[in-house]
Amino acid sequence: MKKLKQLTIVLLLLAVTFGLIPAPIMAQEGAACDADVIVQGDDWLSKIADKFLGDPLAFPAIVEATNAAAAADESYAQIDNPDIIEIGWKLCIPAAEAAQATLGENAVAAPTDGTVLTVWDIWTRGVDGQTIETLDREFEAAHPGVTINRVVKSFDDMKATAQLALSSDDGPDVAQINQGLSDMVALVQAGLLTDLTPYWQKYNWSERLAAPLAARNSVVGDGSAYGQGNIYGMAPTAEFIGVFYNKEKFASAGVEVPTTFAEFEAALETFKAAGETPIMYGNLDGWPAIHTYGELQNVYNPDQTYLDNFIYGRGDVSFDQPGNVEAAAKLQEWVEKGYFTQDFNGIGYDDIWPLFSNGEGAMYITGTWISANLLEGSSADQIGFFLVPPLEAGAAKPIVAGTSTAYTIRKSSPNQDLAAEYIDWMMSDRAMELWLEAGLVPVAPVESASIEPDTLMADMTQAWDQILATNSMGHYLDWATPTFYDTITASLQELQALRITPEEFVQQLQQDYAAYLAEKQQ
Amino acid sequence: MLNTPKARSRGYKPGERPWTACLYILPGFIIYAVFVLWPILDTLRYSFYEWSGFSSPSFIGLDNYIKLYSDEIFRKALVNNLWFIVFYTVFPIVIGLFLTALMTRRRLPGMTLFRTGLFMPYVMAMVVVGVVWRWIYNPATGPLNQALRAVGLDALARPWLGDFDLALPAVGVVGTWVQFGFCMVLFIAGVQRIDEMLYDAAKLDGANEWRQFWHITLPGLRNEISVAMVTTLIAALRIFDLVFVTTRGGPGNETMVVALHIYRNAFAINRVGYAAAIAVVLTIVIVIISVGVLALRQKWVED
Amino acid sequence: MGQTELTNSTPGPTLSTGSRRLGRLSFKARDLPVYLILLVFLLIAIFPFIIMVFTAFKTSSELARGAFSLPEVWRWSNFADAWTQARFDRFFFSSVIVAIPVVLVSTALSVMSGYAFGRMTFPFSRALFFILLLGIMVPLEALIIPLYHNLRWIGLLDTYWALILPQIGMSVSFGTFWMRGFFAEVPQDLVDAATVDGCNSWDTLWRVLLPTAMPAITSMMVLFFVWTWNDFLLALVLISTESLRTLPLGLAFFQGQHTTNVPLVAAGATIVAIPAIMMYVAFQRQFIRGITGGSIEG
Description:
The complex is a heterotrimer.
Chain A: H1 2-20, H2 22-29, E1 35-38, H3 45-53, H4 59-72, E2 90-93, H5 96-109, E3 115-121, H6 126-142, E4 146-152, H7 155-166, E5 174-177, H8 181-189, H9 197-202, H10 211-216, E6 218-219, E7 230-231, E8 237-246, H11 247-252, H12 261-273, E9 279-280, H13 288-300, H14 304-312, H15 322-336, H16 349-357, E10 363-367, H17 371-374, E11 383-386, E12 399-403, E13 406-409, H18 416-426, H19 429-438, E14 441-442, H20 456-470, E15 473-474, H21 484-496, H22 502-521
Parallel strand pairs in A: 3-4, 3-5, 9-10, 12-15
Antiparallel strand pairs in A: 1-2, 5-13, 6-7, 8-10, 8-11, 8-12, 8-14
Chain B: H1 20-46, E1 49-50, E2 58-59, H2 63-69, H3 72-104, H4 111-123, H5 126-137, H6 143-150, H7 167-191, H8 196-204, H9 209-220, H10 222-238, H11 241-246, H12 258-268, H13 272-302
Antiparallel strand pairs in B: 1-2
Helix pairs in contact in B: 1-13, 3-7, 3-10, 4-7, 7-10, 10-13, 12-13
Chain C: H1 32-56, H2 60-64, H3 77-85, H4 88-119, H5 125-137, H6 140-154, H7 161-185, H8 188-196, H9 201-230, H10 233-238, H11 247-257, H12 262-294
């Protein structure tokens, strides 16, 4: 009995304590608007919030104040979905203090006291790690009582361990998961990831992640189809394949940045004739060839719809296409002409880029994830970037492009909202800015003022803007089927060793793809 | 190992019951049963299921085994495993015997140093072995090609781990490098047990050192040789780390091995049930080969 | 291999012979070819290790000039950096915490069960022995996912126990195989004498057999240590908390983090390799002797 009494008192005290907090907010809610705003053509809520309240994240306060005002005065708009505001709506901007209080209320609503948010990420590289640490500390500062428990794993280790961990009740709250069939889709199928669609709307993430990129993170709820459906992951940095080049060597050889594929090949020939390695290349690990081939495929088979269908397993398309054969033949031709580093099949990826960043070779075809590493070399200020040009200048051509692996939330995590807030923070302007400083291309457009002209970063962000503007995002071919990675790496090594013909190469991949489609049908 | 040793006898004091033996075995066996045997039985069970490792498994009977029958990569991997026996078992035993013959010919100063040094590769972590050898084999900057070019043998400088014909031997040589010290140490110890009088008698008969080795040392080492064979055979058939840290099975599937195929299926593409079926088949192969070696040895001992 | 310390009071079953080639140490000119051949093999064996250690003392730019040269200055700073930056101090601690119980417990359990299998007759002994042997025959890569689920069910996942207990299980599998061979070889007279003296099986093992078995046990311990110390896959899958990671895992991660800084990675690799090598050097006399006893006689 005594214990029960004590418990009751404690509960009562708690109720009073927490009960008191909302009281002043309630009082303020009725307060008059500080300003009224009529929605204009190019407005969105966080922009308005930024303008009037100095914080784009303060938009929920506007929503709340407007809805409260609408209840009393019908001239104000009723906002049901913060993502959708219409021109001509009258919005109520609360006073700054009132806005703070409203936001504070939201913060209280999340379980922040003594909460540990466990996040598994793959930012192993030093500079990347510092970026994350900075963001984590700032997140903790903004959420008193919350501690981020960060666990860093290499890409391979994450792949080997994350899925088991996400099926566990004490697994990570947030984990960076590779997109694709064997990872994100399999996890969705097993019901282990949180559907982020509500947060997508709440945080207006469509401004952060372009539609084709969102498709990469989208799965139909039961895992039956990929590339559509609910959204399960958000990724902060853009990664796309292109050509890093040595400006000094281009200048002294009189080579301009090519705008057509013919010019590109002419440049390769020029360097070859001059005794320079045209393309630095190391394919011992197998996967770099996927990107080299992928870009050639996009040159000779630039049909975006076909590519989307192929990757997402729609419409029963085949890999056996003339363009794909042509691309394979071109790859072999380059090998035969000696355009690649000698003995590239025996050189690891991590052995080759340090050579390029220290001035060896004229060009290097790889993804932008390596840019920050390249900037550490002795020829860093000589490195520029361009996209592999199409057959005809200005023609549409997909670029093998995507994002870093995606932040996802474990479905059984007790900290869903907090985890979503964390992901939103990772997608914030602040995060984008830090990624830019760290030398990676942020996935969302950033103010170009912070980018120095004529730098590698300027080249890359410009390329990314172009990809975003034309919606020409190609795919990593290894996502086509669960076994495609192993098949394509092995087949490409054979192709480049001239052990199989381009036709055989295409048929090997088609065989894998057809088997997958057949299995999927069952 | 599987056969009953000749010297076996009762170790009981009168009055002790056979179940006394259980008391000796039980503590170790319980830990083994819970943390090794149970997962082994699970592996057997899951080989009849389709299971991703994190979703709920569904029973599919023998489908995994049927699929395995037509799995070309598995077949290629199994053949490669057999090739690795040459590098893991044959070479290390031959080199081990050769070194043993050299080191035990006469008592020479400095042998402790040699023994320690020669065993060192076996002690190093595979992660380290992989880092170092990938670097040695690097065609552009590695010391191997540098050395070949320095002495004018440019033609022999190859992309080693990336060469379709040379990758397996290149990885295999690393395996030999790791294993030979183990065999040597085993044999040196064995030689110490051979009765010296046999050699004295042979010397009186005028047998040269080669004949002594062939007729006395080699037969005297048959137990050690069979232990080395079984251990290294199992190592060759279970090989995983070495390939994982050097080539990951490439180029093409030239260095693909069964355990790597298991790993890929289980960890990369979530086919844990299928991986289990491969593991079961590999285990059966290992058991058959081990038993075969032991039967051969038995014959040798009896001769 | 000095013979003097081998004359135990107990007539060792395996060590009483073999003094044949162990005459006085002397060096003759005709031994020169032998030394040359051995030297070649020694260089091949330790060359990668030497290169690694040299590299660990260099700077990146020094390394670019050639792998074979001695470092200009013996820079210990790489080791200090690896030790602190990579949190190797923490990983080292984890490795020790895991390795010590594994080696001690596995040894004790292997000796006991090897003794039972080697010297006692009981029902199903051959079947049981075969079941134990499965532990060294089944590929670990398949076993580890069921193991993960079992450990999670027991609640030991992501603890040191998750590394220690399975490692003991696998070590016992090999250790029983190893010790059984040794005990089976012990001359019957020795055991009979003990029985006549009124020893029960435990006393026989403890007082009579154990002293002669020490070399075999030592060598087994070194193997246990090397395997546990170098284990990667168990630690990768069963441990997620960073502070519980062991050295090989830490090294693999460190390597991914510092792909450009080869000397730093080499320093880390050296730190991982040295304890196992020291362990072997320290025990090597015993080891060589013991390996004889541990081999399986038929």
